[in-house]
Amino acid sequence: MTILRPQLMTALAALVLLAGCSSGPATRFYTLAPVAEAPPVAAKDAAPRAARPVTLVITDLRLPPYLDRPQIVTRGSDNRLQMSELEQWGGNLRDDMTRVLTENLGRQLPGDRVLAAPFQIAVQPDYRVEVDVQRFEREANGPVRLAARWWITRGADGALLASPEASFTGPAAGAGDYDALVGAMSTVFGELARAIVDSIRARAGSGS
Q1: What H or E segment, with its residue span, contains residue 191?
Q2: How many CB atoms lie within 10 A of CB 23?
Q3: Helix 178-206, helix 93-108: angle, nearest 10
Q4: Residue 64 CB partners (closer than 8 Å, separation 6+)
Q5: Burial of 133 (0-12, 13-18, 19+ CB in 10 A)
Q6: What pLDDT is attached to residue 5?
Q7: 190 three-state secondary structure
Q8: Which residue positions in the chain have pLDDT lower than 70?
């Protein structure tokens, strides 16, 4: 009869555990993508744009605690949240959303400058934008829903110019299809950028 030493038994147990872990399903990681398209380029003989370029700074983007996590969140019902351990964000979701919002706004405001705080250059922005995301997930019946409020303040004196809120519904994504889900989330997040741009242009047009 062969008696295994404790050290050898521990090593064998570790190998068995490692083999079991390596054969399990792999975690998949996702990121949002910018989708907002720039307006069409004006013809060569068209009149130049009258409005001067503006500088816009995204000062903050906030998420509810249930979204501020690595796992991608969906809704099983109005009151039940589902968090996938195998489908996760490839980085910090808040940082990713700030990056994508900056790029989406930049595409919609060609010629203007869009920055996200903090930044290293000295600049006096024309407008500051603060965003509060209230919901951003797939509903139980399939569509993606984004609910948010944003504040636009004047850069010179911090005066509040607008504080709209809106809800956006994106394409439906089937349960378990996370490629389609994240694509739909990117699409609906682009709608938020367009709404913010409309708010900025309304302020600029009124001379605020």
Answers
A1: helix 178-206
A2: 7
A3: 50
A4: 133, 134, 135
A5: buried
A6: 55
A7: helix
A8: 1-23, 36-51, 205-208
Looking at domain 52-206, which CATH architecture does it have?
3-Layer(aba) Sandwich (3.40)
Give the model confidence (pLDDT) of 152-183 as tens digits: 999 999 999 999 999 999 988 888 899 999 99
pLDDT tens-digit readout, 47-70: 444 467 889 999 999 999 999 999
Distances (CA, A) of 7 to 3, 12, 19, 61, 64: 12, 9, 19, 52, 48
Q: Which residues contact 117 (CB under 8 A, 6 or more apart)?
A: 57, 58, 59, 60
Q: With 0-12 CB in 10 A as exposed, 13-18 as middle and 19+ as buried, what is 70?
A: middle
- Asked if 135 contacts 192 with a C-beta cutoff of 8 angstroms, the reply is no
Domain map of the chain by residue range? 52-206
